């Protein structure tokens, strides 16, 4: 940033486009001049395309030059000096390959390798690239079509472009310091991503997040911000166009434009639909858990009243079941009661072990006699109830440690971690999916 700062630069010198014509000139009236003018005009009116945002220098040059030199003849024109005498350029001169010989499309010549032997250009695949043999004015015309991110990447490719694209030239290319500041704020500082080719910077910047005052005139795209874990659920971020966007509570990506849900501006529309479906599934599974707990307690009261090892724990578990329901209904979005609920669930899990053991032991002792259906039903309901309580206990422990539910939406994570994140997220949604809407800072009292 500091390298490109400073006062606005004066207009571009007109000598940049004519510095390579000092030694060789065409004969006055030669049709070669009109071809050159057509080439420059065609290059200046090339439309800016989205595909140029992330081009490499070679592919971008090929595209622009192919559009500019279409229709040129492959017949060379003679070269004359100031006195009108015919002059043949020296062997190996760059002018043979760039300014004098439009024998082929420049896109094809850039891909070729050359070796000059006795004044004759022969193909040599081991020779260095001929990209630098293009005239300087053509380099400037092509660079004028690039955006700031592409210019910065091109400047880092080699010393030639580093010296050619000076800070003063870059300032003038993008309209001075103020316009350059908008360009900096409209490009991701990490990956140099620019959403589209809107030159007014009014439609591109909503997809970029403005960095805090410690990093002035810098922005990050959504992808780099999520990868760096700069976004937090419940926060609003400032965009590069001075707007604000909430971080989605479901996926952790910013909610911009009209993508938010009609019920909550802190959700994408699709994310809120997924959250709504998860809530319905939680209600159905919660009703199933409550029903299993009630049926297990009823079986203990009806068939095992005389067996205190089964009857007493079943009664206590029935009471604790209602305690868990009270925690689930009464806690809000600020108060965190996960540690208390985890303790209650662990107590219920432990109290179901003696009844399960006693029923299984009685079933083994009376294996020769007819087995009552109530005994089998009680054994099944006790085991299922213990499984549900184990899952609830694990889920509350994960909630107690404030696990980040948006991890599986992060880009470029390994498959093993992605599967593990899905598993942990499923356990949390099984236990309490309303944690997505919880407020910060939390209250554990």
Automatic annotation (TrEMBL):
InterPro entries: F-box-like_dom_sf, F-box_dom. Residues 1-34 are annotated as: Disordered. The keyword rRNA-binding does not apply. PROSITE patterns: FBOX (PS50181). Residues 17-34 have a biased composition (Basic and acidic residues). This is F-box domain-containing protein. Keywords: Membrane, Transmembrane, Transmembrane helix. It comes from the Eukaryota. It comes from Apiospora kogelbergensis.
């Amino acid at each position: 940033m500091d390298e490109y700062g400073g006062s606005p630069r004066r207009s571009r010198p007109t000598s940049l486009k004519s510095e390579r014509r000092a030694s060789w000139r065409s004969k006055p009236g030669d049709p070669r001049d009109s071809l050159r003018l057509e080439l420059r005009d065609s290059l200046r009116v090339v439309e800016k395309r989205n595909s140029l945002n992330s081009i490499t220098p070679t592919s971008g040059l090929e595209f622009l030059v192919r559009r500019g030199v279409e229709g040129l003849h492959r017949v060379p024109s003679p070269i004359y000096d100031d006195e009108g005498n015919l002059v043949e350029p020296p062997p190996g001169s760059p002018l043979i390959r760039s300014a004098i010989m439009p024998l082929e499309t420049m896109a094809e010549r850039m891909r070729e390798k050359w070796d000059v032997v006795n004044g004759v250009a022969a193909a040599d695949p081991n020779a260095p690239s001929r990209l630098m043999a293009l005239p300087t004015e053509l380099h400037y015309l092509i660079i004028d079509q690039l955006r700031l991110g592409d210019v910065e990447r091109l400047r880092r490719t080699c010393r030639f472009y580093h010296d050619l694209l000076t800070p003063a030239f870059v300032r003038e290319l993008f309209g001075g310091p103020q316009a350059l500041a908008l360009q900096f704020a409209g490009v991701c500082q990490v990956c140099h991503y620019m959403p589209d080719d809107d030159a007014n910077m009014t439609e591109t910047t909503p997809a970029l997040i403005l960095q805090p005052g410690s990093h002035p005139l810098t922005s990050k795209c959504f992808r780099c911000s999520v990868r760096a874990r700069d976004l937090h659920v419940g926060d609003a971020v400032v965009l590069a166009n001075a707007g604000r966007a909430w971080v989605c509570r479901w996926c952790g990506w910013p909610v911009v434009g009209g993508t938010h849900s009609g019920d909550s501006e802190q959700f994408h529309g699709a994310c809120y639909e997924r959250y709504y479906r998860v809530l319905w599934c939680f209600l159905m599974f919660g009703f199933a858990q409550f029903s299993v707990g009630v049926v297990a307690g009823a079986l203990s009261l009806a068939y095992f009243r005389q067996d205190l090892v089964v009857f007493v724990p079943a009664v206590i578990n029935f009471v604790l079941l209602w305690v868990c329901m009270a925690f689930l209904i009464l806690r809000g979005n600020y108060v965190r009661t996960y540690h208390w609920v985890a303790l209650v669930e662990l107590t219920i899990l432990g109290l179901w072990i003696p009844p399960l053991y006693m029923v299984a032991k009685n079933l083994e002792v009376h294996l020769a006699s007819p087995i009552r259906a109530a005994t089998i039903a009680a054994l099944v309901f006790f085991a299922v109830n213990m499984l549900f309580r184990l899952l609830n206990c694990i889920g509350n422990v994960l909630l107690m440690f404030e696990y980040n539910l948006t991890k599986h939406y992060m880009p470029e994570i390994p498959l093993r971690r992605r599967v593990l994140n899905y598993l942990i997220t499923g356990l949390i949604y099984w236990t309490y999916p309303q944690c997505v809407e919880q407020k910060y800072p939390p209250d554990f009292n």
